[in-house]
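Hello,

Following up on my earlier ticket. Below are the three sequence lines again, exactly as submitted.
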Amino acid sequence: MTQSAPMTQSAAAPQSIAMTLSGRIEALLALILAVVWTSPLLFAIWAAFHASTDAVNFNLTSPWILTNFATAWAGAPWLLYFFNSFLLVTSVLIGQFILTTLAGFAFAQIEFRGKDIVFLLVLMQLFILPEVLIVENYAVAARLGLLDSILGIGAPYMASAFGIFLMRQAFKSVPKELDEAARIEGCSLLGVLWRVYVPAARPTYLAYALVSVATHWNNFLWPLIVTNSDETRPLTVGLSIFGAPENGVDISIISAATLMVIAPLLIMFVLFQRQFVQAFLRAGIK
Amino acid sequence: MIDPYQSHKRRQTIYGWLLLSPALIMLTAFAFYPTIATVWTSLFSRGTRKRPSEFVGLENYRSLFEDPTFWLVVENNLWYAGVTIPASIIIALVMALWANGKIPARSFVRSAYFTPTVLPMIAAGNLWLFFYTPGFGVLDQIGGLFGLPSVNWLGQPDTALWAVCAVTVWKEAGFFMIFYLAALQTIPPDLKEAADIEGASRWTYTWRVVLPLLMPTTLFVLVNAMINSVKLIDHLFILTKGGPSDASMLLLYYIWENAFAFFDAPIAAATTILVLIVLSLVAAVQFRFIDRRTHYR
Amino acid sequence: MLRNITAGLMLGASALLVNPAQAETELTMYYPIAVGGPLTQVVDGIVADFMAENPDVKVNAIYAGNYDDTRIKALAALNSGEPAQLSVMFSIDAYDLIEQDLIMPFDDVVKTDEDRAWLDSFYPALMANGKIEGKTWGVPFQRSTIVAYYNKDMFRDAGLDPEKAPTNWEELVAMGQKLTRDDTYGLMIPSTGYPYWMFQALAIQNGKELMANDGLTTYFNDPAVVDTLAFWKSLSSEHGIMPEGTVEWGTLRQAFLEGKTAMMWHSTGNLTAVKDNAAFDFGVAMLPGNVRLGSPTGGGNFYLFKDSTPEEQEAALKLIKFMTSPEQAAKWSIRTGYMGVTPAAYETDDLQAYTAEFPPALVARDQLQHAVAEFSTFETARVREGLNNAIQAALTGTKSPAEALDEAQASAERLLKAYQ
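Thanks for your patience. The regenerated structure is below:
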């Protein structure tokens, strides 16, 4: 089990703590914490597959059923919500890749007047969160005709300062020789960017993509404000109005709906957890 | 003749700005301009049918400062930050140390810690709502096994904010753990060997060698946790809606409520500006640190 | 590759968005659901029936969450220039909607005698919230009163007559005490979500209304009102028949169905969901009285938005008339538990048969004779929020009832000054 764990083969030898008594206690605590950490999810799984009365009373012998999923599925246009979420994360990701690549490259490899000041401005956006600016961002989106559109949900996040910063770091670490070799072969500036820098920064792109997809798949407040209709609502907003506490929550049906919503990311995570974690580590976000 | 160096420089400047322009346009539209517009909005009164909107200067700020609810919300948010930031960082660190050690079922442990990170806060709110529900909630049932009385976690001012904090820590810790794990991987193994030869205990090694080496990561995580203490409020929509009696009301929810439930944009704008001022102070401090760090490298 | 897929999907999306059959008049209607059950399908079904009968009108019915969400979404849509000709919104939003100059009175649209007869056909108590400054701004749709649900099995176990729910406050406390056990409570009155609504019921029973009918005056710190809050608080702190702290609106029905409480006060809109899910024998009764019997009405009214063409207004009126017609109102009432909004609805065969077989469906209607308009003022969301906070502060023991209500009254007066 331990041998197959993703990071055993890395440079740092894991500190061996399994031998001593205190080590064993620690291992036990680590396991307990792991169980505690997954318990809300485990309970949701339990509840989703049982009638709500059986679920809350922990009738261990009660039958496992699927009707909660059927009821939840029939209760809202989930397929449309899924599709909206998918469209949202895809468009945000494409926008972010283009904008942050160009800007990151400019900051990393081009010397020009005003660069430092602009960079500082961009860094400021790390703290001027789109979330906090909801009042006026809403006005801007309204003026641009972006309300109740997928683009409207994504637009404020496309020029991500975090992404620009990340790309700048990645491009800075590309060896100068590669750059020069490409230029000697007659590549244009964009050609160099495309042929040398982008491939070299692949791990950063992957990690950034994962962070971005997870963030926007899960984003709620801004989509709640901008969307008005089923045609644009992403999953999180759909889930929140489906399960609004006013509805007289049925624990099992809400659990089923919640599981349906988190399933895609969760399955992706379980399948690719190695790559997931590795991507974070390799990107050197630290 | 044009000086070739000058022309190269000019070309670079043009390229630089061209490459930056798409990002700058978007940043202007959705960060810089809205910031200025927020300041502007915050200086006007809210119009009613009988009294149209007019310039009132700092009046909105004054009424905020005189409003005990605002101060309660500020206090709540300080508690929220004061609890979730250290708690999630410390738990993340412990998780990373464990998940990096040789323990049984390590990949399960690691995934377990990380899983909450991939869940939407809204879903997390749903999952936790049934933990907290008095009577038949999971926490009450567990408490019941030990003969503890039923606790109305979300329905009492003393516990509601804590219950909200717990969900945030649960959600954040695994995410921060990843950064610590990454940093732990970069610690050369010979340091551990050297410590072993010196006869240093694991505790001493962790305390004296590992933690100082993790300082840059801690800084990064700290900034993220601070930002999250403003930003992570989605679960309030499910769990408490800021109640009972504003006991778990946080700033961003307060802004949202004023702007979109009460349609009082000026007050929401004034609150936004105050939050932005605090955030920029944090930013200023952080940039000094970043400067120093890059200097060292 | 990825891009191709995306492009394909985007094409697909735009195809979905394009409206296939071009109808003559297109209406957009937002509506809320605030009680349990898959009610969106019921509304969608009624709307589909309407469109089948009126092929020249196309209706986009958009479910937008609870009452607050719906108001926020509908107004946001209007502000951003998206069309919406009518909506179901909180009956108590009327003042604010008038204030923001968004809605038009039905009197301006109603032309024929038949239309006027229709406007007069509703229960007067349900029209109270919609009648302001001599005009009718809201027409009842999903309307409720608060009723008492009780678990007859638990009544039997406690040695009480399962056919006799408490009719006054003394009986409520006395029976509640008999019904309270170690792990179950005698009574739960929800105090999140819509605490002011429950409080209004108690205050009416105690002989005092919370507001005057001008949208400008509140009586939060009237001695009878303070006394009411003290009574609510005493149910847990003194008599121990209700849990300490607040009782969650959303999970209360589940708690009742789990037998965690012998009685609950809740919207009649929950009736069908309780009926479908209760594993025990349950009863429904009018709320008990003290000085008098009483409950506020609640729920959603139809509103017409101003910014629409005469054709759209006509079509909207047609839709509203269809949805409030006796047959549809009866169907809606059976599927939800909400009231049939006109006496004629209760004369339909459907509802006659249903109430004969299930008499609790009549309780809400019978209670109407004791009902008063739901709490509503200008700036209603904020005034209400202040009252909600006061109620919760008192129930959770952070403030005394008098102190909390004084504050709420002061803040209401401050907020309403701008409208005097």
